[in-house]
Specification:
Largest sheet: 3 strands, antiparallel
Structural class: mainly alpha
Order of helices and strands: HHHHHEEEHEHE
Distance between the termini: 82 Å
Number of strands: 5
Number of helices: 7
Strand content: 5-15%
Length: 430
């Protein structure tokens, strides 16, 4: 029973150690960066094609209006020409001039019709390019959603592995305590075994002292008489045969118990060795994961700063428990955030908090008066970044609570969709 239990724990431990998520996290991070770049390119191309298409549609509508105006003028001139032909006293010079005007308008009408056909052909080509770009853009959005789902699944697996590691640590402590108990029982059994062995040796020595072992050539009847005589002497002795059998049985039981305890100690030592190896592997994976998280924190922080035209990095010193932040402004480079202005410090703080949010799970995320020291430009960029971040697919299950004494005039109406805005009345002054 003990061997089977420890064997199951060893197999579970080996199975858990087969999971390595470092390479998966690195590959998914690279794939996500590549898809973000492609999506940004597609968005730019999409915006350019949309603008061109709107311009062509506007030109087509203008040309149609001009064509209709020329047709109306042509119709009016034809009617005037017919009226002049019906007049007998109308001068020939006026009819000729009107016909020339009609010819000129017809030439302009033909030219406009040709331009219309050319613009219509370009509009069809741009519609096709617009449709293809939109399909690629939609595909990139789906791919991004799939990658974020895989990241969420990996975070869930890492949490499960951490819980299993804690369970194994608790089981290791329990087995250590059990090992101590078994060692104590084994020591006690060895003392009992030595005591019983000593009693048997003393009994054997006593028997040899009374009846030494000898070789004989006596006849059977003589041996029978000797046996009966010895049986009478044994019956008269203080130690009976039943007591000797009982001692022998006890000795066998103690030997069997000793062997069981010895086997159990061997299994426990083997399991303890495997648990130490498993703990070492877990610590190795833990340090690797901690390094990856620090690396991702610095990358996310730099990406958030880039929306303002800044750059920077975060260096985490786990050994000394320190976090160093470096910012690169367009005109200076600083390692001390105290030298920044109020708006720059608030913006960098929001970027740092958003980077941390990407690496942790929480149902509620709150910020209070984060834009008090910001100017209008920094506040507009910060609000846009927080709204896009709250609507992203990887944290859609979290609820965001933003408190600010400023108005929301910098937020567009389409960005307010899905938001609940609570505005308090101004306090009454007496």
């Amino acid at each position: 029973g003990i061997n089977a239990e420890y064997g199951d724990l060893s197999r579970q431990t080996a199975k858990m150690l087969n999971v390595d998520t470092t390479d998966l996290l690195r590959q998914l991070s690279q794939a996500r960066n590549r898809i973000n770049s492609e999506r940004e390119t597609l968005n730019q191309k999409y915006s350019s094609l949309d603008g061109k298409l709107k311009g062509i549609k506007s030109r087509v509508v203008g040309n149609r209006n001009r064509q209709n105006n020329i047709k109306r003028e042509l119709k009016t001139l034809n009617e005037r020409a017919i009226e002049l032909d019906n007049l007998e006293d109308a001068p020939m010079m006026d009819a000729t001039a009107l016909q020339q005007d009609v010819i000129g308008y017809e030439a302009q009408l033909a030219e406009l019709a040709q331009k219309k056909d050319e613009l219509e052909r370009k509009r069809v080509e741009l519609d096709e390019e617009y449709r293809e770009a939109r399909e690629r853009w939609e595909q990139s959005k789906k791919t991004d959603g799939s990658i974020m789902s895989e990241l969420e699944e990996l975070r869930t697996k890492m949490g499960a592995l951490q819980r299993k590691r804690d369970k194994i640590s608790q089981e290791a402590d329990r087995l250590k305590n059990k090992k101590k108990e078994i060692v104590a029982e084994t020591t006690k059994a060895e003392h009992e075994f030595d005591s019983k062995k000593k009693q048997i040796e003393e009994g054997t020595e006593m028997a040899n002292s009374r009846c030494p072992r000898i070789e004989t050539r006596k006849k059977p009847d003589q041996l029978v008489k000797s046996i009966r005589r010895l049986e009478q002497q044994i019956n008269k002795s203080s130690i009976s045969q039943s007591e000797i059998d009982s001692l022998a049985n006890q000795l066998e039981e103690i030997k069997a118990k000793f062997l069981r305890k010895k086997s159990a100690i061997k299994d426990i030592n083997q399991l303890a060795t495997e648990l130490k190896s498993a703990q070492a592997d877990r610590e190795k994976h833990y340090f690797t994961m901690r390094k990856e998280i620090s690396y991702r924190l610095s990358i996310l922080f730099s990406m958030n700063l880039s929306q303002r035209g800044y750059s920077g990095q975060i260096k985490v010193d786990h050994k000394n428990g320190e976090l160093n932040m470096q910012l690169n402004m367009p005109n200076r480079k600083t390692h001390d955030v105290k030298s920044l202005s109020g708006g720059e410090r608030s913006f960098s703080t929001v970027c740092f908090i958003c980077s941390l949010w990407c690496l942790m799970e929480s149902p509620f995320r709150c910020l209070d008066e984060f834009d008090v020291f910001m100017d209008l430009f920094n506040r507009r960029i910060t609000m846009k970044m927080l709204i896009e971040y709250s609507k992203s697919s990887n944290i859609h299950k979290s609820q965001f609570i933003l408190l600010t004494p400023q108005n929301l005039s910098t937020v567009k109406e389409e960005d307010k969709v899905g938001m609940k805005i609570l505005q308090l009345d101004a306090p009454t002054r007496f």
